[in-house]
Amino acid sequence: MDKRNIILEDGGNAVASCPVIVSASRSTDIPAFYADWFFHRLQVGYSVWTNPFSKVRSYVSYKDTRFIIFWSKNPYPLLPYLDILRGKGIGCYIQYTLNDYELERLETGVPPLVERIDTFKKLATRLGKKAVIWRFDPMLLMESLSLDSLLDKVERIGDQLKGYTEKMVFSYADIANYRKVKSNLDKSGICYREWTEGQMVEFAERLSELNKTNGWNYALATCGEKVELARYGIAHNRCIDADLIARLAWQDKTLMKHMGVEVKEITSHGLFDDGLLPSGAIPLPGNRYFISRHKKDPGQRLLCGCMASKDIGEYDTCPHLCEYCYANSSKPSALANWERHQNNKFSETITGK
User: Fold this and answer.
1) Does the reported pTM lie above 0.90?
2) How is 260-315 classified by DSSP, letter by letter?
3) Pick from 170, 308, 158, 280: which is nearest to 227 by CA?
4) Measured distance CA(150)–CA(169) in Å, rounded
5) Residue 196 backbone phi and psi in degrees, to 5
6) CA separation for the pair 131, 14 (Å, rounded)
7) DSSP letters of 143-157?
8) pLDDT tens digit sequence for 253-295
């Protein structure tokens, strides 16, 4: 990632990283709670990010940014900002976590499900169905929530999103290996159950059957899962996906050059029909294609397939306060940072510090 000198709001100077692809964010829900802050910082040209491990602060410049991946459980506040992104020539897609844990009261901070589904449809209408990805994440088993009940919830949402997305991504709640998740569930007295591999396989098989019989035709994928489910048509996901970025923004020559993607024209109109596309070729509109150049980010966990990007969020800042949260160490810490942000909404940092 390139670095360059930038001029700060106070007239000072700093060295900043200049990501072309930004993740906003794995660490918190920027669209739901910090959209005003983010688009202000995008206009100013930079923000400050704090490393969660070393606590070292660093500057992030948006001068070279060409694409943003948003992650959210309530991206409704993004709607008025989409034209700003378009005006700046910045593409995007949304990882939209749309769960149904209303009866279980695991996500009391999110809007009602009916509103979230309506938001999904509005975004898909604006951005196109390729650009809004449905995540049911995590799949959580409880004493009061069986595998059958989970599949019923998935089916109800899946039927309503038919025609509004191409893809569904899910993960199995791996509670024992995530200290924050276990701690948060234990504090709230949630009687959870770990998944067995047999249950994972059964769920996958039945989900795949729903996808066919209900006519969804979603591309199904798991996020960060070791279990192999290819025989059910379920792939390992790449949430920051170079191929999807290229499909959405192939006309952006600067972005394609950065990604090493060469868009080519099909010289023979019979090429598709004859099966003569080169290995790894992905079709594009206008009789074009490109060869996949996706490369995994070596800095991510072993089972993550994402390409390199710069995440600009911070942990302990999400006021959704979901009971199974991996990004908040505690509800009080998240609320304290949210209150600090409210008192300094357009600070260089998301926390207002």
Assistant:
1) yes
2) T--EEE-SSTTHHHHT-PPTTEEEETTTEEEE------TTS-TT--PPP-EE---S
3) 170
4) 14
5) -95, 160
6) 34
7) TTB-HHHHHHHHHHH
8) 999 999 999 999 887 655 555 556 788 899 999 889 999 988 8
